[in-house]
Amino acid sequence: MHPILPVEIQVLSLAFLLAFTAWVIWLIRSQRLHLRESLAWLLTTLAAIAVIAYPKLLVAGARLLGVEVPANALFGLGLLYLAANVLAATIAISANTARVRRLTQECALLRAEIEALRASVAPRAAGPGVAPPGALPPG
Amino acid sequence: MRVAAIVPAFNEARNLERLAEALRTRAPGCDVCVVDDGSSDGTARVAASLGLSVLRLPLNLGIGGAVQAGYLWAWERGYDVAVQIDGDGQHDPAFLEALVAPVADGRADVVIGSRFLAEGGFRSTAVRRAGIRYLSWFLRLRCGVRVTDPTSGFRAAGRRAIELFARYYPSDYPEPEAIALARRAGLRVEEVPVRMQERAHGVSSITALRTLYYLVKVSLALVLLPPRNEPLDGA
Questions:
Q1: Domains defined along chain B, listed by start
Q2: Cβ–Cβ pairs < 8 A, chains A and B
Q3: Which of A20, A50, A96, B36 is placed for a possible disulfide with B43 were both Cys, Cβ 3.0 to 4.6 Å?
Protein backbone atom coordinates (compact mmCIF):
# COMPACT_ATOMS: atom_id res chain seq x y z
CA MET A 1 0.00 0.00 0.00
CA HIS A 2 1.16 3.52 -0.81
CA PRO A 3 2.30 5.17 2.44
CA ILE A 4 0.26 8.12 3.65
CA LEU A 5 3.38 9.99 4.65
CA PRO A 6 6.81 9.27 3.11
CA VAL A 7 9.20 8.03 5.76
CA GLU A 8 11.62 10.94 5.15
CA ILE A 9 8.88 13.47 5.88
CA GLN A 10 7.79 11.53 8.91
CA VAL A 11 11.32 11.49 10.34
CA LEU A 12 11.93 15.15 9.56
CA SER A 13 8.60 16.24 11.08
CA LEU A 14 9.11 14.13 14.18
CA ALA A 15 12.61 15.50 14.67
CA PHE A 16 11.28 19.04 14.30
CA LEU A 17 8.34 18.52 16.67
CA LEU A 18 10.48 16.78 19.28
CA ALA A 19 13.08 19.54 19.10
CA PHE A 20 10.26 22.08 19.48
CA THR A 21 8.88 20.23 22.50
CA ALA A 22 12.35 20.06 24.04
CA TRP A 23 12.71 23.82 23.47
CA VAL A 24 9.35 24.55 25.17
CA ILE A 25 10.28 22.32 28.12
CA TRP A 26 13.65 24.03 28.41
CA LEU A 27 11.93 27.43 28.39
CA ILE A 28 9.62 26.29 31.18
CA ARG A 29 12.47 24.88 33.26
CA SER A 30 14.51 28.05 32.90
CA GLN A 31 11.37 29.94 34.00
CA ARG A 32 11.05 31.98 30.84
CA LEU A 33 7.69 30.45 29.91
CA HIS A 34 4.89 29.82 32.36
CA LEU A 35 3.49 26.34 32.39
CA ARG A 36 -0.03 27.76 32.25
CA GLU A 37 0.60 29.65 29.02
CA SER A 38 2.64 26.86 27.46
CA LEU A 39 0.17 24.07 28.19
CA ALA A 40 -1.64 24.79 24.92
CA TRP A 41 1.64 24.45 23.00
CA LEU A 42 2.62 21.21 24.75
CA LEU A 43 -0.75 19.50 24.32
CA THR A 44 -1.24 20.50 20.70
CA THR A 45 2.35 19.57 19.84
CA LEU A 46 1.90 16.15 21.43
CA ALA A 47 -1.21 15.68 19.30
CA ALA A 48 0.81 16.62 16.21
CA ILE A 49 3.52 14.09 17.17
CA ALA A 50 0.86 11.38 17.53
CA VAL A 51 -0.54 12.15 14.10
CA ILE A 52 2.91 12.09 12.45
CA ALA A 53 4.01 8.91 14.24
CA TYR A 54 0.78 7.04 13.45
CA PRO A 55 -0.47 8.42 10.13
CA LYS A 56 -3.46 6.10 10.37
CA LEU A 57 -4.79 8.53 12.95
CA LEU A 58 -4.69 11.19 10.26
CA VAL A 59 -6.65 9.00 7.84
CA ALA A 60 -9.24 8.26 10.50
CA GLY A 61 -9.39 11.94 11.42
CA ALA A 62 -9.78 12.99 7.79
CA ARG A 63 -12.60 10.46 7.34
CA LEU A 64 -14.26 11.79 10.47
CA LEU A 65 -14.04 15.33 9.12
CA GLY A 66 -15.25 14.20 5.70
CA VAL A 67 -12.01 15.30 4.00
CA GLU A 68 -11.05 13.05 1.08
CA VAL A 69 -7.32 13.76 0.91
CA PRO A 70 -5.58 13.23 4.30
CA ALA A 71 -2.91 15.82 3.34
CA ASN A 72 -5.64 18.46 3.20
CA ALA A 73 -6.81 17.47 6.66
CA LEU A 74 -3.20 17.85 7.78
CA PHE A 75 -3.10 21.42 6.44
CA GLY A 76 -6.41 22.22 8.07
CA LEU A 77 -5.35 20.82 11.41
CA GLY A 78 -2.02 22.63 11.15
CA LEU A 79 -3.79 25.95 10.68
CA LEU A 80 -6.12 25.19 13.56
CA TYR A 81 -3.10 24.36 15.73
CA LEU A 82 -1.52 27.74 14.98
CA ALA A 83 -4.73 29.74 15.28
CA ALA A 84 -5.60 28.18 18.64
CA ASN A 85 -2.17 28.91 20.08
CA VAL A 86 -2.05 32.47 18.75
CA LEU A 87 -5.49 33.15 20.22
CA ALA A 88 -4.37 31.75 23.58
CA ALA A 89 -1.35 34.08 23.47
CA THR A 90 -3.51 37.10 22.54
CA ILE A 91 -5.85 36.39 25.43
CA ALA A 92 -2.86 36.32 27.78
CA ILE A 93 -1.64 39.67 26.36
CA SER A 94 -5.07 41.27 26.83
CA ALA A 95 -5.21 40.12 30.43
CA ASN A 96 -1.75 41.54 31.03
CA THR A 97 -2.64 44.86 29.40
CA ALA A 98 -5.53 45.24 31.83
CA ARG A 99 -3.23 44.39 34.74
CA VAL A 100 -0.54 46.86 33.66
CA ARG A 101 -3.17 49.58 33.33
CA ARG A 102 -4.51 48.96 36.81
CA LEU A 103 -1.02 48.80 38.34
CA THR A 104 0.03 52.00 36.59
CA GLN A 105 -3.00 53.77 38.03
CA GLU A 106 -2.29 52.38 41.47
CA CYS A 107 1.33 53.60 41.25
CA ALA A 108 0.13 57.11 40.43
CA LEU A 109 -2.42 57.08 43.26
CA LEU A 110 0.19 55.85 45.76
CA ARG A 111 2.74 58.42 44.59
CA ALA A 112 0.20 61.19 45.09
CA GLU A 113 -0.52 59.81 48.56
CA ILE A 114 3.18 59.69 49.46
CA GLU A 115 3.83 63.21 48.25
CA ALA A 116 0.87 64.53 50.20
CA LEU A 117 2.16 62.75 53.32
CA ARG A 118 5.67 64.11 52.82
CA ALA A 119 4.32 67.60 52.41
CA SER A 120 2.32 67.28 55.63
CA VAL A 121 5.28 65.87 57.61
CA ALA A 122 7.91 68.31 56.38
CA PRO A 123 6.06 71.21 54.77
CA ARG A 124 9.17 73.34 54.35
CA ALA A 125 11.36 70.66 52.83
CA ALA A 126 8.75 69.30 50.45
CA GLY A 127 8.95 71.26 47.24
CA PRO A 128 6.44 70.95 44.44
CA GLY A 129 8.24 67.94 43.06
CA VAL A 130 9.95 65.20 45.03
CA ALA A 131 11.21 65.85 48.52
CA PRO A 132 14.59 64.27 49.36
CA PRO A 133 14.23 61.28 51.72
CA GLY A 134 16.55 63.01 54.19
CA ALA A 135 13.99 65.78 54.58
CA LEU A 136 11.96 63.67 56.98
CA PRO A 137 12.57 64.75 60.58
CA PRO A 138 14.22 62.13 62.82
CA GLY A 139 12.13 60.10 65.24
CA MET B 1 -21.43 68.92 47.47
CA ARG B 2 -17.75 68.17 46.85
CA VAL B 3 -16.69 68.57 43.23
CA ALA B 4 -13.49 67.26 41.66
CA ALA B 5 -12.20 68.40 38.28
CA ILE B 6 -10.30 65.62 36.50
CA VAL B 7 -7.87 66.99 33.93
CA PRO B 8 -6.32 64.30 31.72
CA ALA B 9 -3.10 65.82 30.36
CA PHE B 10 -0.53 64.45 27.94
CA ASN B 11 2.24 66.99 27.26
CA GLU B 12 0.02 69.92 28.19
CA ALA B 13 2.53 71.82 30.36
CA ARG B 14 2.07 74.99 28.28
CA ASN B 15 -1.73 74.96 28.59
CA LEU B 16 -2.01 74.19 32.29
CA GLU B 17 -1.38 77.63 33.74
CA ARG B 18 -4.24 79.16 31.75
CA LEU B 19 -6.55 76.32 32.75
CA ALA B 20 -5.60 76.51 36.43
CA GLU B 21 -6.24 80.26 36.41
CA ALA B 22 -9.60 79.81 34.66
CA LEU B 23 -10.63 77.08 37.10
CA ARG B 24 -9.66 79.28 40.05
CA THR B 25 -11.74 82.22 38.86
CA ARG B 26 -14.64 80.55 37.02
CA ALA B 27 -15.10 77.41 39.09
CA PRO B 28 -13.88 78.11 42.60
CA GLY B 29 -14.51 75.47 45.21
CA CYS B 30 -13.69 72.50 43.04
CA ASP B 31 -10.57 70.42 43.67
CA VAL B 32 -8.45 69.91 40.58
CA CYS B 33 -6.68 66.64 39.84
CA VAL B 34 -4.34 66.66 36.85
CA VAL B 35 -3.64 63.20 35.48
CA ASP B 36 -0.26 63.31 33.78
CA ASP B 37 -0.43 60.48 31.26
CA GLY B 38 3.29 59.80 31.01
CA SER B 39 4.18 63.23 29.60
CA SER B 40 7.75 64.14 28.70
CA ASP B 41 7.35 67.93 28.98
CA GLY B 42 7.12 68.27 32.76
CA THR B 43 3.32 68.40 32.89
CA ALA B 44 3.31 66.92 36.41
CA ARG B 45 5.89 69.42 37.68
CA VAL B 46 4.01 72.39 36.25
CA ALA B 47 0.71 71.13 37.68
CA ALA B 48 2.24 70.65 41.14
CA SER B 49 3.83 74.11 41.05
CA LEU B 50 0.37 75.53 40.31
CA GLY B 51 -0.84 73.92 43.52
CA LEU B 52 -2.98 71.29 41.80
CA SER B 53 -3.21 67.64 42.83
CA VAL B 54 -1.31 65.45 40.42
CA LEU B 55 -1.56 61.81 39.46
CA ARG B 56 1.61 60.98 37.58
CA LEU B 57 1.18 57.82 35.54
CA PRO B 58 4.60 56.19 35.07
CA LEU B 59 3.47 54.87 31.66
CA ASN B 60 1.37 56.40 28.92
CA LEU B 61 -2.01 54.65 29.20
CA GLY B 62 -3.98 56.73 26.73
CA ILE B 63 -7.01 58.86 27.52
CA GLY B 64 -9.14 55.99 28.87
CA GLY B 65 -6.61 54.81 31.43
CA ALA B 66 -5.79 58.39 32.46
CA VAL B 67 -9.41 59.40 32.97
CA GLN B 68 -10.06 56.21 34.90
CA ALA B 69 -7.16 57.02 37.23
CA GLY B 70 -8.93 60.31 37.92
CA TYR B 71 -12.20 58.54 38.68
CA LEU B 72 -10.37 56.14 41.03
CA TRP B 73 -8.91 59.19 42.80
CA ALA B 74 -12.33 60.86 43.07
CA TRP B 75 -13.96 57.62 44.25
CA GLU B 76 -11.37 56.99 46.97
CA ARG B 77 -11.72 60.54 48.24
CA GLY B 78 -15.49 60.43 48.31
CA TYR B 79 -16.27 63.23 45.86
CA ASP B 80 -19.93 63.68 44.99
CA VAL B 81 -19.28 64.89 41.46
CA ALA B 82 -16.31 64.45 39.15
CA VAL B 83 -16.03 66.68 36.10
CA GLN B 84 -13.77 65.69 33.22
CA ILE B 85 -12.18 68.69 31.60
CA ASP B 86 -9.44 68.56 28.96
CA GLY B 87 -6.08 70.13 29.72
CA ASP B 88 -5.72 71.62 26.24
CA GLY B 89 -7.92 74.67 26.71
CA GLN B 90 -10.86 73.42 24.60
CA HIS B 91 -13.19 73.32 27.58
CA ASP B 92 -14.18 76.51 29.38
CA PRO B 93 -14.37 76.06 33.18
CA ALA B 94 -17.16 78.66 33.21
CA PHE B 95 -19.52 75.84 32.18
CA LEU B 96 -18.48 73.58 35.04
CA GLU B 97 -21.33 74.76 37.22
CA ALA B 98 -23.87 74.06 34.48
CA LEU B 99 -22.49 70.54 34.11
CA VAL B 100 -22.67 69.86 37.83
CA ALA B 101 -26.20 71.25 38.29
CA PRO B 102 -28.22 68.26 36.96
CA VAL B 103 -26.20 65.92 39.18
CA ALA B 104 -26.59 68.19 42.19
CA ASP B 105 -30.36 68.34 41.60
CA GLY B 106 -30.47 64.56 41.47
CA ARG B 107 -31.78 64.61 37.89
CA ALA B 108 -28.84 62.88 36.22
CA ASP B 109 -25.84 60.62 36.90
CA VAL B 110 -23.86 61.58 33.81
CA VAL B 111 -23.99 65.02 32.18
CA ILE B 112 -22.41 65.62 28.78
CA GLY B 113 -21.37 69.09 27.69
CA SER B 114 -22.61 69.45 24.12
CA ARG B 115 -21.17 72.04 21.75
CA PHE B 116 -24.11 71.53 19.41
CA LEU B 117 -26.73 72.65 21.90
CA ALA B 118 -24.95 75.98 22.40
CA GLU B 119 -24.72 78.97 20.07
CA GLY B 120 -21.33 79.70 18.53
CA GLY B 121 -18.02 78.34 19.72
CA PHE B 122 -15.74 75.82 18.07
CA ARG B 123 -17.59 73.03 16.29
CA SER B 124 -14.87 71.01 14.57
CA THR B 125 -14.64 70.25 10.87
CA ALA B 126 -17.55 69.20 8.65
CA VAL B 127 -16.20 65.65 8.28
CA ARG B 128 -15.95 65.18 12.01
CA ARG B 129 -19.37 66.72 12.57
CA ALA B 130 -20.78 64.10 10.19
CA GLY B 131 -18.98 61.40 12.15
CA ILE B 132 -20.37 62.76 15.41
CA ARG B 133 -23.90 62.79 13.96
CA TYR B 134 -23.47 59.16 12.92
CA LEU B 135 -22.24 58.16 16.39
CA SER B 136 -25.11 60.02 17.99
CA TRP B 137 -27.56 58.11 15.79
CA PHE B 138 -25.82 54.81 16.49
CA LEU B 139 -25.88 55.36 20.26
CA ARG B 140 -29.61 56.07 20.15
CA LEU B 141 -30.16 52.95 18.07
CA ARG B 142 -28.03 50.76 20.33
CA CYS B 143 -28.92 52.05 23.79
CA GLY B 144 -31.83 54.41 23.30
CA VAL B 145 -29.88 57.34 24.67
CA ARG B 146 -30.20 60.79 23.08
CA VAL B 147 -26.86 62.57 23.00
CA THR B 148 -25.98 65.21 20.40
CA ASP B 149 -22.25 65.33 21.21
CA PRO B 150 -21.15 61.80 22.18
CA THR B 151 -17.44 62.51 21.61
CA SER B 152 -17.38 65.40 24.05
CA GLY B 153 -14.84 64.86 26.80
CA PHE B 154 -16.37 67.65 28.89
CA ARG B 155 -18.70 65.79 31.24
CA ALA B 156 -19.76 65.39 34.83
CA ALA B 157 -20.31 62.16 36.74
CA GLY B 158 -22.29 61.69 39.94
CA ARG B 159 -21.41 59.25 42.69
CA ARG B 160 -22.84 56.17 40.96
CA ALA B 161 -21.15 57.07 37.67
CA ILE B 162 -17.82 57.69 39.43
CA GLU B 163 -18.06 54.20 40.89
CA LEU B 164 -18.91 52.65 37.53
CA PHE B 165 -16.08 54.45 35.71
CA ALA B 166 -13.56 53.73 38.49
CA ARG B 167 -14.38 50.09 38.03
CA TYR B 168 -14.66 49.96 34.29
CA TYR B 169 -13.70 52.55 31.72
CA PRO B 170 -13.04 51.79 28.04
CA SER B 171 -9.53 52.35 26.64
CA ASP B 172 -8.91 54.23 23.40
CA TYR B 173 -11.59 56.64 22.14
CA PRO B 174 -13.67 55.93 25.24
CA GLU B 175 -16.21 58.79 25.22
CA PRO B 176 -19.17 57.31 23.28
CA GLU B 177 -18.64 53.88 24.79
CA ALA B 178 -18.64 55.31 28.32
CA ILE B 179 -22.09 56.79 27.65
CA ALA B 180 -23.33 53.39 26.52
CA LEU B 181 -21.88 51.70 29.60
CA ALA B 182 -23.48 54.25 31.91
CA ARG B 183 -26.79 53.69 30.19
CA ARG B 184 -26.37 49.92 30.49
CA ALA B 185 -25.78 50.29 34.22
CA GLY B 186 -29.10 52.11 34.48
CA LEU B 187 -27.62 55.58 34.95
CA ARG B 188 -29.42 58.69 33.74
CA VAL B 189 -27.58 60.58 31.01
CA GLU B 190 -28.31 64.22 30.25
CA GLU B 191 -26.80 66.96 28.10
CA VAL B 192 -26.22 70.64 28.70
CA PRO B 193 -25.02 73.24 26.18
CA VAL B 194 -21.36 74.31 26.38
CA ARG B 195 -19.20 76.47 24.11
CA MET B 196 -15.88 74.96 23.13
CA GLN B 197 -12.72 76.68 21.95
CA GLU B 198 -10.05 75.63 19.54
CA ARG B 199 -7.07 74.30 21.45
CA ALA B 200 -4.47 76.92 22.37
CA HIS B 201 -1.25 74.95 21.81
CA GLY B 202 -0.37 71.65 20.18
CA VAL B 203 -2.40 69.46 17.88
CA SER B 204 -5.47 67.34 18.52
CA SER B 205 -4.60 63.70 19.03
CA ILE B 206 -7.20 62.77 16.40
CA THR B 207 -5.80 63.41 12.92
CA ALA B 208 -7.89 63.33 9.76
CA LEU B 209 -6.70 59.86 8.86
CA ARG B 210 -7.61 58.45 12.23
CA THR B 211 -11.21 59.63 11.98
CA LEU B 212 -12.24 56.57 10.00
CA TYR B 213 -10.45 54.23 12.40
CA TYR B 214 -12.15 56.08 15.23
CA LEU B 215 -15.60 55.51 13.75
CA VAL B 216 -14.97 51.83 13.00
CA LYS B 217 -13.47 51.18 16.43
CA VAL B 218 -16.23 52.96 18.32
CA SER B 219 -18.97 51.32 16.24
CA LEU B 220 -17.51 47.90 16.94
CA ALA B 221 -17.19 48.69 20.63
CA LEU B 222 -20.85 49.72 20.70
CA VAL B 223 -21.93 46.57 18.88
CA LEU B 224 -19.87 44.37 21.20
CA LEU B 225 -20.91 45.95 24.50
CA PRO B 226 -20.79 43.49 27.38
CA PRO B 227 -24.24 41.95 27.80
CA ARG B 228 -24.64 43.29 31.31
CA ASN B 229 -22.57 45.20 33.80
CA GLU B 230 -21.90 43.63 37.14
CA PRO B 231 -24.24 45.14 39.71
CA LEU B 232 -22.70 48.00 41.64
CA ASP B 233 -22.21 47.07 45.26
CA GLY B 234 -20.77 50.29 46.62
CA ALA B 235 -17.33 48.78 47.24
A1: 3-223 (3.90.550.10)
A2: 45
A3: B36
